[in-house]
Amino acid sequence: MKKSKFSDSQIMQALKRVEAGLGVPELCREIGISTATFYKWRAKFGGMDTSLIARMKELEEENRRLKKMYVEEKLKAEIAAEYLAKK
Predict the structure, then answer these.
(1) CA-CA distances (angstroms) from residue 32 to 12, 42, 47, 56, 68?
(2) Residue 19 near residue 13 (C-beta atoms within 8 A)
(3) Counting beta carbons within 10 angstroms of the beta carbon of residue 14, is it exposed (0 to 12), middle (13 to 18) or buried (19 or more)?
(4) Tens digits of per-residue pLDDT, 38-79?
(5) Which value, to the nearest 10 degrees, does the dihedral of the CA atoms of residues 14, 19, 20, 22 take?
(6) Model pTM greater than 0.85?
(7) List of residues 6+ apart from 39 with CB closer than 8 A
(8) How far is the C-alpha of 65 from the C-alpha of 58, rounded, in Å?
């Protein structure tokens, strides 16, 4: 997954500035993002604080790692089943 050039605190700061009354197009122009990116951030991180975002990212990483482990184990089981079927 591509790493964002913005930190969690920068994303939260941008969301809070819009909540405070700054227009979305002005903010996007200022920090150099598209309005679609801003709305994706708001959908994903709206209502969270920085610690919750960090925890969510930890859980996403753990989930990715567990999915990879599952696929590897499933592949091993399929290879073993193939080997036993040939015997």
Answers:
(1) 16, 16, 23, 25, 35
(2) no
(3) buried
(4) 999 999 888 887 788 888 889 999 999 999 999 999 999 999
(5) 60
(6) no
(7) 24
(8) 11
